[in-house]
Amino acid sequence: MTVIDSDAHVLETSQTWDFLDPEFKKYRPMVVAQVGGEREISLQGNLVAEYWVVDGRLHGKERNVDTTTTVESRELQNVSARIHHMDQLNIDIQVLYPSLFLRPYTSNAEIEYALCKSYNRWLASINAQAPERLRWVVCPPLLSMDRVREELAFGKEHGACGIFVRAFETNRLLTDHKLFPLYALAEEFDLAICQHAGNDNAQMFEFFTGSAFNQFKLSGVGAFHHLLWTNTPEKFPNVRWGFIELSAQWVPYALNDLSIKYERFRGEKMPENMLKKNNFWVACQTTDDLDYVLSYTGEDNLVIGTDYGHHDTSTEIEALRTIRTIGKIPSTVCDKILDNNARNLYGL
User: Fold this and answer.
1) Which of 222, 233, 277, 325 has the most CB atoms within 10 Å of its CB?
2) Distance CA 132, CA 128 (A)
3) Which pLDDT band holds residue 42 (cuts at 50, 70, 90)?
4) Does residue 244 sit in helix, strand or coil?
5) What's the total number of domains in the chain?
6) How distant is the alpha carbon of residue 263 from its chain centre?
7) 251-261 helix and 219-229 helix, angle to the nearest 10 degrees
8) The model's pTM
9) What phi, psi does 27 have (nearest 5°)?
10) Residue 236 structural domain
11) Cα–Cα separations (whole angstroms), residue 80 to 130, 136, 245, 338
């Protein structure tokens, strides 16, 4: 069987922006080093020394970095090194997500387009070196919907298997009708909508400074709930939806709340198998109560990832091995989570 890491990361480098069009080079993100003042501590306990400068704002470059991985591997400076580490971990395929784009980085449509376009071409160059091992999610310039088709077409042609979104896209929820053209394109190009833990609403992001759980995680739970309540997936029956790096322990809570709303406000029972009915997949963690979670999700709609390259509560570099050895669920279910389910989500 194939072992698929449904949530791995690449850490952007200066080379990420080498693909900027000439007219956009003025928007090239800078890296600056702190030389004085109180130093920030990373999630792994190291001093943060470098920051990205994007559209005049600072973003910690080293805040969430797993230094147990090598720089050349986590930044994909050396694709062979990454593949070698995947082999050591018994991982056949990794699906790559961005790092910088997990947070609000610009509200300028032209800057967003420039950076997304360069990032997508950087990932295409990485995929070209290992097309069967390193797949990726394309970053759409959602402030320029007229340019999204171009990026999705490019991504599909160069190994992308999903479309990166966050629970909040500037001031829009994922149920906003202004995003419906994106979902129609997802159907057309057979690319999954991959809602990764993240937040593109600057006001909310800054309000929850110091609480990454609120900044990155809870908004994703709310998006899952609201998409189902508004029947948005039914409008796009061929779209596959992934909910990545949120764990899965919350799924029973969200579905229980929905079942109450169905009965109280619609006078009907919530349909069974809501995840399968709506083409939803959720990335679990080995720390989840998997037997309990599976009673709500079913066996066919969980996937798992390592969060490779990052160091936070979702990171577990050995997760794809551990899920087999901890004995929480049968090996046949593990096989589905590691292979068939991920294959179905990403259309591999």
Assistant:
1) 233
2) 9
3) low
4) strand
5) 1
6) 33
7) 40
8) 0.96
9) -95, 5
10) 4-11+68-346
11) 9, 17, 26, 23
